[in-house]
Structures are given as structure tokens and as C-alpha cells.
Design goal:
heterotrimer; A alpha/beta; B mainly alpha; C mainly alpha; B: mainly alpha; four-stranded antiparallel beta sheet; globular; C: mainly alpha; 15 helices; about 70% helix
């Protein structure tokens, strides 16, 4: 069994009095592709946001790429260089062009010369099929285009782990496919991926493991084939019946 | 494309539009004529002369403080210039101080520290809800009544004296050497500018980050220092000296100036704090998260992502507050600070030329406002975030 | 791969370190060394000054109107006695002493009407009628000459009633002007648009004091020879024109926020321009900018203090009237300033709180 690149050990998190993550135990192997699903409020976004320390946890141990996540600033910065994140609301920087969005982190964090950063950026833009928009500003693009730029932006830092927090939930239906295509292509490249999504078709075609969360706990996890065909828990069955019926 | 057929009937919108406009213009012209006619009549009846010729006559009054020498034999137009100088003096000092204070308090309102946050909120809620005139009067009272008389002046810092007569502070005695210092400073600033350009290009070429601020400042400082040394290192400071009766020497500002500046600064800072706070809060939290997720440090996120976006939201209302501060400086007439409005008031009372004096005031302020508005429009157009 | 059946985990309360009072203290006051230093410094400063302030303002203060005792204090404690002695002069200006129940009643009526206007339940056509009635009663009470009340000329009106009158009346009169100017600014007719733009930019570009000077000194020149205009009316016109320009910008902001579709739907239904504005556009636009209108009212309320400079004795001016000429009490000016500052502050703070409440609860403005 390959060593796990992400390891949750009895991790618990509270928002005030609300117990949002309950004793999470999870080991993610290198190169594994995981889809996390569940009803809203189940803590799935919070779970992956703990991985790059956008959320803090109160109990347990979380190790990412050998680094223990605490509130140590240096440890967090080191981890964030290796972990890329794609947000539901894209979060592109509106005052910079697409190209500048992509070269910002490589230049200022990765300390790469501008020319090389721009070459890398153009390569990533070509990969997500949006190279001709390099000089435009984010708000001049459609939602699907913006999300693809956001994916390219994260890839410019050559991360080992990619986190996706409901990447298609804010998109109009006709744009969801273009983003999912890019994600499927990414999945074939060997990067460790954790994806919170409701797109079960994507899960079926790409995931190594599907995790179902409810009320802050991992209720069930299995291969996609087994998960969709033979859900074990009552809650899983309930959830699947709701989202697969339409 | 067929030419548009104009339908000149009673009911066409074009005709009606023209008629409305003609009526409106005629009505306004009639009102203006009525007012002008009455004004001329009244002035004739009362024997008031009109025209701006009075500006060349000697003023006949002294002015308490001014940027350049003035005495009662100087013409009125020079008096107005003194007033304008005083207004600008108070406005510039006020704008600089209020920006500093307001920014600090605005950031303090977002602090994690409960005490700091509450105090800053208390400051804003307190000074925002009291009329500025009242605040000016109160500060004038404090400076005039509670400070000791000049023979007993307070000495909070070496060389600075505070009393009923104002504040005295040391100023350098101007010598040849100072000119050389200034030249050195200018050269140092230029060198710092060139350094920044070189550092930026080097950063883009190699990726190695260099501090862009401190070396530039150091160069400016070194330039000034070398200039100072080259000029013979003049150190003579004119220090205010207290003897039995008063404080003499050094530079001085009157309590009126202090009252106006302090009062305006503190009042306007409460508005500036709110502008700064809402500007920072207007940047969506997701921007900070995205910057963090990319590995940018807090300082880098602030400089590259947050501040550029926040400043776009802050600067337009901030310039509006600067304009408000300048307009509010007109209240100096209530504390006896000889600003433009105050001098105009004195002239008006002396010569009876109400229309001319008020026109001068309004023209000056209007010019300031329009210039500021034009600059603001230029800034907005240049920095606007481009959308579809 | 964990394929065993899942055992549910029951929610627990958070560990002591991360919630509760201790956690709050750590997070809010002592989060890191910078915060801890700030907390300690602030507490030290407060501990240094607060006892002295309380000592001066409360402990050693004198509240009875005893001039000799106050002088004996020699500023070691606050002499609130000056307020006890002079409050009627400060609050009501030069209004005849015996008749001061009239401005008191008039002011209370006005305050009641203002509070009533703020209660949503009472918003209806009758409110406008009630306002007109109350204004008529206000003038009758203050002016006198009817119902057996002795006449009091407007030059003697002062203090709080004058402040309230100036602010309420000027905003009320400024409102229709502002709406017309705002509509005019968005008009397609260039002549009307230019006139409105010139008016707004001219007024907004100059300080209020110059407008008041204009009203005070130039107004008499504008009237045909022989006609005099009451000082109060002149100042009221000045403040009204000033407030109308700012209010016009506020209303224009609301008008701009109305989607074009509203105009188009109204036109499609065959409504005329004025019908569209009155029934469709203005109700929506005005509702949207209620918080900004309240801000305008607060600003105008504060701006009325400037009439002191043109010799009307509003609340700020009446203080000078009360204490300026009185050699005995003049040294206690600061207590007087603090008194009227407290009155202004109470009104303005209450209004701004109300405005924030409106924004939050009535789903107007930018709040969601």
C-alpha cells in the first residue's frame, strides 16, 4: 500500500458550539482521485479546506505531504505551495489580466523569472483550451471560462494535490461540461485529487473512491461501482435516491 | 437607411421636447432677469456701487496670520490671496493628518482585538454625530482657555512650547547649506526611483525578489545626508526661547490655526475611517482565500491582491472627504482664523460689496471642487476594473 | 478502503480551549504578542485617564446652580450648575420666559411626529395630512397671535425648537425640489438637463456658509425695493436649496438603480411620463435610498448649527447668548458645550441607528 499523502486522524472541528467535523479518519494515497459527496451542511467543504489550512481544526492530527498542519505559519505556507485549490466562486483576481493571474504566484512565491512563468502559464492555458484569452480580464469571460482559468492558475504552481470545492455549482448548465472535461483530463495525469461535487457522472468515470459524508462524519466510502450499485448505509441510499432521480 | 421623417405636430415627442425646453429656458431667463433687475434697483437705491474695482483699494485691516507679509495698506486682492493661502495651509495639513488618523482608526475597527475595535468604533460614533462647527468651537475653547498664558508656556518636548498664544517650534535657520541638502534629497529620490525600476526588471528577469521600498528610501536619505554634509552641515536651529514674558523665536502657529486643523482632522477622520473600513471589507473574502491557497504570504496577499482592489473602492469617496474638509475650513470664520471666507466677510462688511465678495468665495471653492472632480474622473476611468 | 458499516458519532461540545470565555479572551485580546501589547497599553491608558475623568465629571461636580460654589471648585470638578441655571436660555433662546411652554410643546409635537413617521405601521396618506396639521400648530404656537397667544416675532425664536424647525422644514421642502432636479438630470432634453447639472454641481461645490451668506446678504437685494424678507425665511431658503442639491444626487442614485425594464413595461402599458414616475419608478427608487435620505437628514440637522454665523440663535448660538455676556458663568463654557454636544449627539445617533435598522429590516438599500 502506497504511503498516504494526506492523513486525517480523529480530526474534529467546531464552529462555536456546532460540531462540524466529527472524528474524521481518512487516508489518501498518492495519485488517488477521491470524490466527496453528501447533503449540504455535512462538512464536506470544511473537510477539504482543512487540508490547505483555510480552516483550523481543534482536535486530532492532520498530516499533508509529511507536514503536520498546525497554526505554524511556515508549515502552512510550505503546504500551500504543494496544494492547489479551485473554488466554487472562481475567486480570480479581477484587477489583473488572465495571464497576470497565472504568473502571480509562480513569480512571487516560486521565485521564477517572469518569462519562464509566462511560458508556463501559456502552456496551462493551452491545456484548458483558453490560450487566446490570456490578455483579457476575468470579468470579461464567461463563468465556464473563468473556472478553467482558475484551474490553470492552480496548476501553474505544479501542485501535488488538487482540491476542488464544488467547482461547477456556480455555473450555468451549458458550461459545466467544459469544466468537467478539463477535470477529467487532469485526473489522467497522476495528481492526487479531492473533489467535492454533485456531478455523479464525473465520479463514476474518474474516481478511485467515493466518500459519502453526513453530519460531519464519513458515513461510507467505496469504489464508484460498488458505491452506486450497493450503497450500504440507509442514509447513503436516501441521498443517492434524491440526487440520482433527476 | 431612410432618413427620419420629423413629424411636426402638437403631439410628437420632438415638438413637445422643444416646447418644454423653450418654456423652461424662458422661465429661468425671466427669473434671472427679475432678480438682476431688483438687485440693480436695490443697489442704486442704497448707493452701493458694483464692480470689482474695489479690489485694488487698500484693505484697511490687518490679518492675524499669513503666509506672506501683509499690512493694512495692501490692496484687497492681496488680502483675498492671504485668505486663500490660509485656507490651503489648513486644508493641506488637515488632509495629511486626517488620512493618517482615519486610516489607522479604520483598520483598527477591523482588528481582532476587542478593545481596539471598540475604541475605534466609539471614536467614529462619537465624532461623526456632533456638528463640526461645535467641535471647532470646543477645540478653540480648550486651546484658548485651558492652555496657560505665554509666560507660563507648557514645554512637552524640547523646543516646543504650547500656550494660549499657540505653538512655537524650532525651525532651521535658512542657509546656503540647506539648499544643497534639498538638492541632495532630490538626487537621492531620483536614485531611489531608478533603483526601483532596476529591481523590478531584475525580479522579472531572474525571479529573485528584492525589497523595493527600503533601499529606495535609504538612497533618498543618503542623498540628503551627503547634500547636507556638502553644504557645510548647517545645524543652526532657531529655537524658541522662553523668557519672563513670552516665547520668542522659532516658527509659530496660532491657536486659531491649531483649533481649525485639529477640529477638522478629528471630525473628518471619523468619516475617513468608515471609508477605509468599508473599502477593505468590500474585497470578497474569497480573494484572500485564493491568495492564501496559492501560497502567497499575508504581506504579499495584502500588497498584490487586497490593497489594489480596496484602494479602487476607497479613493473616490476619500477625495470627496478631502473636499469636505476644505469646504469645512470655511467655518474658520467662527473661531477667528483668517481664511478666505473670513477675509471675504470682513471685506463685505467694510465695503458693502456683498455680491462681489460672495462671488469670489464661490468661484474659488467651485474651481477646487471641479478640479478635484476632474482628477477623480480621470482616476476612475484609468483604474476601473474591466468587465463585459 | 473502509467498507464496514459505519457507527454514528454523536456530537460533543467543543474542548474548553476553543470555546467559552477563556477562548474568547485568547482570541480577542491576547491572540498574539502584538494584540497582547495593544490590550495592555490600552488598559493602562484607560486606567490612567478614566478615574480622573469620572472624578471631574461626576464625583466632584456640582449640579445645583450655585455660582459661588462653582467658582470655589476652580475647575477641579465640573460645574453642571451652569446648566441648571441657564438651561432655559440654552434650550429656548430669547423666547419670552413665561411663554416657554409653547416652544416646549411645539418641539415635543415635532418629535412625536418624527417618531411616528419612522413607525412603518403609520405610513399612509394620513401621515402627510397629519404633518401639515402639526406644522400649522407648530407655527401657531411659536408665532402666537391666534387663540389668545401673545405674538412672538421670529427673531426671538431659538434653541432646540429653531434647530428642529430648520432641519425638518428644509428637508421637507428640499424633497420635492430634489425629486424634480433628479428627474431633470436624467431627462433627454438638453436644456433641462444642463440647468439641473449646473444647479447641483454649483451648490455641491461651495461650502454651506457661502450659501448662507448669499441667502443672508444677497437675498434682500434680490427682492423688489421695499420688500423685506424675514431672516428666518432667508436662512431657511438657503438651507433648503443646499439640502436639495445633495438630496437630488441621492434620489438620482436610486433612479439609476431601477432596471430599464420597469420603464419599458410602463411604456408598454401606455402610461405617460409623469404617471410612470409617480406610480412605478419613484416609489421603488425612493424606497431603495431611504438610508441615504436619512443620512441627508442627519447632515442637515448638523448643518443647522451654522446659522449661528448668520446670527440666528439655534442651539449652538443660544449657548453663546446664554454664557457669552454673563461674566459670572462664562468660565464654565465647556460644561455648556458638552451639554449641547450631548443633545446633538443623542439626536444624530438615534437617527443613524434607525437608519441602519431600516436598512437591515426593510430590505432596502444595499443590505440583504
Amino acid at each position: 500500500m502506497s504511503e498516504s499523502i494526506i492523513n486525517f486522524e480523529k480530526v474534529s472541528k467546531w464552529y462555536g458550539e456546532f460540531h462540524v467535523l466529527r472524528d474524521i479518519d481518512l487516508a489518501v494515497a498518492k495519485g488517488e482521485r477521491i470524490v466527496i459527496c453528501g447533503p449540504s451542511g455535512s462538512g464536506k467543504s470544511t473537510l477539504i479546506r482543512c487540508i490547505n489550512a483555510l480552516e483550523e481544526y481543534q482536535e486530532g492530527k492532520l498530516t499533508v505531504d509529511g507536514v503536520l498542519i498546525t497554526d505554524d505559519v511556515k508549515a502552512v505556507e510550505a503546504v500551500r505551495k504543494e496544494v492547489g485549490m479551485v473554488f466554487q466562486q472562481f475567486n480570480l483576481f479581477p484587477h489583473l489580466t488572465v495571464l497576470e493571474n497565472l504568473t502571480l504566484a509562480p513569480m512571487w512565491v516560486g521565485r521564477i523569472p517572469k518569462k519562464e512563468a509566462e511560458e508556463r502559464a501559456m502552456m496551462q492555458l493551452a491545456r484548458v483550451r483558453i490560450a487566446e484569452q490570456a490578455g483579457k480580464y476575468p470579468l470579461q469571460l464567461s463563468g465556464g471560462q473563468q473556472q478553467r482559468v482558475a484551474i490553470a492558475r492552480s496548476l501553474c504552481m505544479t501542485p501535488k494535490i488538487m482540491l476542488f470545492d464544488e467547482p461547477t455549482s456556480a455555473l450555468d448548465p451549458e458550461m459545466i461540461k467544459e469544466v468537467l472535461d478539463v477535470m477529467i483530463e487532469l485526473a489522467g495525469m497522476g495528481i492526487t485529487m479531492l473533489c467535492v461535487t454533485h456531478e455523479m457522472g464525473f465520479a463514476r468515470s474518474v474516481a478511485d473512491r467515493v466518500i459519502f459524508m453526513d453530519q460531519g462524519q464519513i458515513v461510507e466510502q467505496n469504489t464508484p461501482a460498488e458505491f452506486f450499485a450497493h450503497p450500504k448505509s440507509e442514509r447513503t441510499r436516501d441521498f443517492l435516491s434524491k440526487i440520482l432521480s433527476h | 437607411m431612410r432618413a427620419k421623417r420629423r413629424d411636426w405636430s402638437w403631439r410628437s415627442r420632438a415638438t413637445r421636447g422643444l416646447i418644454y425646453q423653450a418654456v423652461a429656458v424662458a422661465a429661468i431667463a425671466a427669473v434671472v432677469w427679475f432678480l438682476a433687475h431688483n438687485t440693480l434697483e436695490n443697489m442704486r437705491v442704497r448707493g452701493i456701487q458694483s464692480g470689482f474695482g474695489f479690489l485694488t483699494q487698500p484693505a484697511g485691516f490687518d490679518i492675524g496670520e499669513s503666509v506672506f507679509p501683509f499690512d493694512s495698506a495692501d490692496p484687497y486682492w492681496k488680502a483675498f490671496l492671504v485668505g486663500l493661502g490660509n485656507t490651503l495651509r489648513a486644508a493641506v495639513v488637515g488632509i495629511v493628518l486626517t488620512t493618517l488618523l482615519g486610516t489607522l482608526i479604520g483598520i483598527g475597527r477591523l482588528s481582532r482585538n476587542f478593545l481596539v475595535r471598540s475604541l475605534c468604533t466609539g471614536y467614529v460614533e462619537l465624532f461623526r454625530n456632533i456638528p463640526v462647527l461645535l467641535q471647532l468651537l470646543m477645540w478653540y475653547f480648550v486651546l484658548n482657555e485651558w492652555l496657560p498664558p505665554v509666560s507660563d508656556a507648557l514645554n512637552p518636548l524640547p523646543g516646543i512650547f504650547l500656550s494660549k498664544s499657540g505653538m512655537a517650534f524650532p525651525i532651521p535657520e535658512w542657509e546656503q547649506g540647506h539648499l544643497v541638502t534639498v538638492v541632495g534629497l532630490a538626487l537621492g529620490i531620483a536614485a531611489g526611483w531608478w533603483y526601483r525600476r532596476w529591481a523590478r526588471a531584475a525580479f522579472e528577469r531572474t525571479g529573485a525578489a528584492r525589497s523595493m521600498l527600503w533601499p529606495a528610501l535609504a538612497l533618498a536619505g543618503v542623498g540628503a545626508l551627503l547634500g547636507w554634509l556638502a553644504g557645510g552641515a548647517p545645524t543652526a536651529l532657531e529655537l524658541p526661547v522662553r523668557n519672563d514674558l513670552n516665547v520668542s523665536g522659532g516658527g509659530a502657529v496660532t491657536p486659531e490655526f491649531l483649533a481649525v486643523t485639529i477640529g477638522l482632522t478629528i471630525y473628518t477622520a471619523s468619516f475617513v475611517a468608515e471609508i477605509v473600513r468599508s473599502g477593505i471589507q468590500s474585497v470578497p473574502w474569497g480573494q484572500t482565500e485564493a491568495a492564501g491557497a496559492l501560497g502567497l504570504s499575508r504581506g504579499q496577499a495584502l500588497k498584490l491582491v487586497l490593497l489594489p482592489q480596496a484602494l479602487r473602492v476607497i479613493i473616490p469617496p476619500l477625495t470627496n472627504q478631502y473636499l469636505n474638509l476644505t469646504k469645512n475650513s470655511s467655518l474658520a470664520v467662527a473661531v477667528g482664523f483668517p481664511d478666505l471666507v473670513s477675509i471675504s466677510n470682513t471685506t463685505l462688511n467694510q465695503t458693502g460689496r456683498a455680491v462681489e465678495c460672495i462671488t469670489i468665495i464661490m468661484a474659488v471653492y467651485l474651481t477646487l471642487s471641479l478640479v478635484t472632480a476632474a482628477l477623480m474622473n480621470w482616476y476612475n476611468a484609468r483604474s476601473a476594473i474591466r468587465e463585459r | 478502503m473502509d467498507t464496514a458499516l459505519h457507527v454514528p458519532v454523536i456530537a460533543r461540545p467543543p474542548p474548553v480551549r476553543s470555546a467559552g470565555l477563556l477562548a474568547w479572551l485568547r482570541g480577542n485580546l491576547f491572540a498574539d504578542w502584538k494584540n497582547a501589547t495593544a490590550t495592555i497599553v490600552t488598559v493602562a491608558l484607560i486606567a490612567h485617564w478614566l478615574p480622573d475623568i469620572i472624578d471631574w465629571a461626576l464625583v466632584r461636580s456640582i449640579t445645583r446652580p450655585d455660582n459661588a460654589a462653582c467658582r470655589a471648585l476652580d475647575h477641579a470638578g465640573a460645574c453642571w450648575g451652569v446648566i441648571a441655571e441657564k438651561y432655559r436660555l440654552i434650550l429656548f433662546g430669547r423666547y419670552p420666559f413665561d411663554e416657554q411652554w409653547r416652544p416646549l410643546l411645539a418641539t415635543l409635537l415635532m418629535v412625536v411626529m418624527l417618531v411616528a413617521s419612522c413607525t412603518r405601521v403609520l405610513w399612509s396618506r394620513w401621515l402627510v395630512v397629519a404633518w401639515l396639521a402639526v406644522l400649522a400648530v407648530f407655527f401657531a404656537l411659536m408665532r402666537g397671535g391666534v387663540a389668545g397667544l401673545t405674538p412672538v416675532e421670529t427673531a426671538r425664536w431659538g434653541g432646540v425648537p429653531l434647530t428642529m424647525l430648520l432641519s425638518t422644514l428644509s428637508i421637507a421642502a428640499a424633497f420635492p425640489i430634489a425629486v424634480l432636479v433628479a428627474l431633470g438630470r436624467r431627462s433627454h432634453l438638453p436644456a433641462i438637463r444642463s440647468v439641473c447639472i449646473v444647479y447641483v454641481e454649483l451648490i455641491r461645490g461651495v461650502p454651506l456658509i457661502s450659501v448662507l451668506f448669499m441667502a443672508s446678504f444677497m437675498f434682500p437685494l434680490f427682492m423688489p425695493p421695499g420688500i423685506t424678507v424675514d431672516v428666518l425665511v432667508r436662512v431657511l431658503v438657503g438651507i433648503t436649496l443646499f439640502a436639495a442639491a445633495y438630496l437630488a444626487e441621492v434620489v438620482r442614485g436610486g433612479l439609476q438603480a431601477i432596471p430599464k425594464g420597469q420603464h419599458e413595461a410602463a411604456a408598454a402599458m401606455g402610461l405617460s411620463y409623469w404617471q410612470t414616475q409617480r406610480k412605478i419608478i419613484l416609489p421603488q427608487a425612493l424606497r431603495m435610498v431611504v438610508p441615504s435620505i436619512m443620512n441627508s437628514f442627519i447632515s442637515t440637522f448638523k448643518d443647522t448649527s451654522l446659522v449661528t454665523i448668520v446670527s440666528l440663535y439655534d442651539l449652538t448660538g443660544s449657548l453663546a447668548l446664554a454664557l457669552g455676556g454673563d461674566a459670572d458663568w462664562r468660565q464654565f463654557y465647556m460644561e455648556g458645550y458638552l451639554f449641547i454636544a450631548a443633545i446633538y449627539w443623542t439626536f444624530c445617533f438615534a437617527m443613524s441607528r434607525y437608519s441602519q435598522w431600516v436598512e437591515r429590516h426593510l430590505n432596502v438599500g444595499n443590505a440583504h
